[in-house]
């Protein structure tokens, strides 16, 4: 992972505005809770240049007891996927996504997937 591609990824996330992000209840809950609930994951993604609060795509399932399960949360990363090493952080697997929606990005990039995340949906 070169510092160039981390910088490129960081810029990409900086320029993503609220309008670019999904506004459904589950996604809003994710953005609100994720950093505090998974600080190590946040630091790790940040080392790739990724802003944990701005997923490219995510799926969610409502569970009992005010929990929302996010089986997969995907993030765009610039650079070559050969440089990416799958890992496990705070119980979540992070790996290259096998399938994802079209990114419409021309530059070299790939999509990683965090599996899985569970968050409370109540306001603290
Ligand atoms: Zn959503």
Helix content: 25-40%
Put simply, the count of helices is 3
Q: Mind describing the biggest β-sheet?
A: 5 strands, antiparallel
Strand order of the largest sheet: 1-4-7-6-5
Low-confidence stretches: none
Net shape: globular
Mean pLDDT, as a whole number?
A: 95
How many strands in all?
A: 8
Number of domains: 1
Radius of gyration: 14 Å
Give structural notes.
- The structure is a single chain.
- The chain is of the alpha+beta class and 124 residues long.
- The chain has one domain.
- It is built from three helices and eight strands; from the N terminus they run H-H-H-E-E-E-E-E-E-E-E.
- The strands form two sheets. The protein has a five-stranded antiparallel sheet with strand order 1-4-7-6-5, with helices on one face. It has a three-stranded antiparallel sheet with strand order 2-3-8, with helices on one face.
- Strand 2 and strand 3 (67-70) form a beta hairpin.
- The model has no long low-confidence stretch (mean pLDDT 95).
Jot down its keywords.
124 residues; alpha+beta; 5-stranded antiparallel beta sheet; 3-stranded antiparallel beta sheet; 27% strand; globular; binds zinc ion
Describe this structure in a few short sentences:
This protein is an alpha+beta fold and 124 residues long.
Strand-helix topology:
Layout: H1 3-15, H2 25-37, H3 39-47, E1 57-58, E2 61-62, E3 67-70, E4 73-78, E5 87-89, E6 92-96, E7 109-115, E8 117-120
Antiparallel strand pairs: 1-4, 2-3, 3-8, 4-7, 5-6, 6-7
């Amino acid at each position: 992972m070169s510092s160039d591609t981390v910088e490129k990824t960081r810029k990409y996330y900086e320029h993503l505005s609220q309008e670019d992000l999904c506004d459904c209840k589950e996604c809003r809950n994710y953005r609100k809770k994720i950093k505090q609930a998974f600080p190590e994951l946040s630091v790790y993604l940040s080392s790739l240049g990724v802003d944990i609060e701005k997923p490219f795509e995510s799926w969610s399932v409502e569970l009992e007891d005010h929990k929302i399960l996010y089986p997969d949360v995907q993030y765009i990363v610039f650079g070559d996927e050969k440089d990416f090493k799958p890992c496990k952080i705070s119980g979540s697997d992070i790996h290259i996504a096998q399938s994802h929606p079209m990114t419409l990005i021309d530059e070299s990039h790939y999509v990683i997937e965090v599996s899985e995340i569970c968050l409370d949906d109540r306001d603290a």
